[in-house]
């Protein structure tokens, strides 16, 4: 589950990570009140206004309705409402969104932390994630902050460092010191960075995150170390342990069809193809997607109905798939182990009758328990449903209709 910047920052702060202070707003009037409150608490004279959407590159993105950037600077309280109005309610297009962009329902009013002082502010990149090659968590960091880490990896890979954490002992003080050293820090900034790294890793473990990305981590002109941005992803499988974090979910940032599928217990991911898939089991679903590609089509979705597929569940799955107007055919590929094939077949027939007006081909391959009975149900239904026995036969049927 992805979190907004302000949500991620609140979690980081609860673990002792120093953050750029700020408040959220949903209207220009709320933005002004947030700025006033922030000014009274921090003394800041300038205010950073950030669109809150689940996408990176907001500072370079554009609000289509107004031409405003997704991150802007207000140099006085008087500028706050106008600049907030230019972002709120608009659609922000970034390198990580569709061409339509994402609607901005909320903004974050943050303090200016690039204030003048004895030293120049410096930006670093830092993330915490799983190294899947070793099965250990690791901290990835770079002195090149504020830019895409992919660009750094391509042009100056020697500036990317990693520190793996032994799960038996957790992060050690010497590892935090090593991070600060590799970033070229000394004195007070060195001490602040070691505290930051330890707190950041404890936060990552404490909320069962699957990824933290802080870009940039800022060394201020007076040698404070703080998170200016935050991208936090929490492991969905651990949300039962974090009811408070689960309540932070913003469904408006997710694909509405995927949300609907999740609410009825279906594992659904929308893709950009033309053949809908309905399968039981993740492995078989992946194989089915390969079959579709080999047959000349492109999968329009990943949909796992699970091992308890009955007539109602199959009908729900059909309705979900048919919401995608780009689907030109549907391939149902079920292996009857726990689930009986005849129940799935009955679900296909019932769904076809209940939904009505299905004007695209449906190819059904059922193998396993009661497969023969299932095929007979399909063949005797009189509906425009094509039954298949083998994977090759299913692929040939797909090829014939796409």
Separation of the first and last Cα atoms = 35 Å
The number of distinct helices, counting runs of at least 4 residues, comes to 13
- Helix- and strand-based class? alpha+beta
CATH architecture annotation name of the largest domain: 3-Layer(aba) Sandwich
Number of strands: 19
Q: How many domains in all?
A: 3
What is the CATH T-level topology of the largest domain?
Rossmann fold
Low-confidence stretches are none
Give a short account of the largest sheet. Answer: 6 strands, antiparallel
> What multimeric state do the chains show?
single chain
Beta-strand fraction estimate: 15-25%
- Helix fraction, binned, reads 25-40%
Mean pLDDT, as a whole number?
A: 91
CATH C-level class of the largest domain is: Alpha Beta
Any idea what the radius of gyration is? 26 Å
**Molecular shape:** elongated
Provide the CATH superfamily of the largest domain. Succinyl-CoA synthetase domains
Textual characterization of the structure:
This protein has 402 residues and is an alpha+beta fold. The protein folds into three domains: 21-111, Dna Ligase, domain 1; 122-246, D-amino Acid Aminotransferase, Chain A, domain 1 (2-Layer Sandwich), CATH 3.30.470.20; 256-401, Succinyl-CoA synthetase domains (Rossmann fold), CATH 3.40.50. Helix content is 35%, strand content 24%. It is built from 13 helices and 19 strands. Strands 8, 9, 10, 11, 12 and 13 form a six-stranded antiparallel beta sheet that branches. The chain has a four-stranded antiparallel beta sheet with strand order 1-7-2-4. The chain has a four-stranded parallel beta sheet with strand order 15-17-18-19, with helices on both faces. A hairpin with a 4-residue loop joins strand 8 and strand 9. Helix 9 crosses helix 13 (391-401) and helix 11 (341-355) packs parallel to helix 12 (371-380). The mean pLDDT is 91. It comes from Salibacter halophilus. Its EC number is 6.2.1.5. Keywords: ATP-binding, Ligase, Magnesium, Metal-binding, Nucleotide-binding, Tricarboxylic acid cycle.
């Amino acid at each position: 589950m992805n979190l907004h910047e302000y949500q991620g920052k609140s979690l980081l702060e609860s673990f002792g990570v120093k953050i750029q202070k700020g408040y959220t707003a949903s209207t220009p009037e709320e933005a002004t009140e947030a700025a006033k409150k922030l000014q009274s608490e921090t003394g800041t004279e300038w205010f950073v206004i950030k669109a809150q959407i689940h996408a990176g590159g907001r500072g370079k993105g554009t609000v289509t309705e107004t031409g405003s950037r997704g991150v802007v600077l207000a140099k006085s309280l008087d500028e706050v409402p106008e600049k907030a109005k230019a972002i709120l309610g608009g659609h922000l297009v970034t390198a990580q969104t569709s061409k339509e962009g994402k609607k901005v329902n909320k903004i974050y009013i943050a303090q200016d932390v690039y204030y003048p002082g004895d030293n120049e502010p410096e930006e670093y990149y830092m993330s915490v994630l799983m190294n899947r090659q070793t099965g250990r968590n690791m901290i990835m960091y770079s002195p090149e902050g504020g830019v895409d880490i992919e660009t750094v990896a391509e042009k100056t890979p020697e500036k990317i460092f990693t520190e793996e954490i032994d799960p038996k002992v957790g992060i050690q003080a010497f590892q935090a010191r090593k991070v600060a050293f590799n970033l070229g820090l000394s004195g007070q900034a060195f001490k602040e960075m070691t505290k930051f790294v330890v707190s950041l890793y404890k936060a990552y473990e404490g909320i069962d995150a699957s990824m933290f990305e802080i870009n940039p981590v800022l060394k201020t002109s007076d040698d404070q170390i703080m998170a200016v941005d935050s991208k936090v992803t929490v492991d969905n499988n651990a949300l039962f342990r974090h009811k408070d974090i689960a309540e932070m979910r913003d469904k408006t940032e997710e694909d509405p069809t995927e949300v609907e599928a999740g609410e009825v217990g279906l594992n659904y991911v929308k893709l950009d193809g033309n053949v809908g898939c309905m399968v039981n089991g993740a492995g078989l679903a992946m194989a089915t997607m390969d079959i579709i590609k080999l047959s000349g089509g492109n999968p329009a979705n990943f949909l796992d109905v699970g091992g308890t597929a009955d007539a109602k569940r199959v009908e729900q799955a059909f309705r979900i798939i048919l919401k995608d107007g780009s689907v030109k055919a549907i391939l149902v590929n079920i292996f009857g182990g726990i689930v009986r094939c005849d129940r799935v077949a009955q679900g296909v027939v019932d769904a076809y009758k209940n939904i009505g007006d299905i004007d695209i081909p449906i190819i059904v391959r059922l193998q396993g328990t009661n497969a023969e009975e299932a095929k007979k149900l399909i063949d005797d239904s009189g509906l425009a449903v094509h039954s298949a026995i083998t994977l090759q036969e299913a692929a040939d049927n797909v090829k014939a209709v796409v």
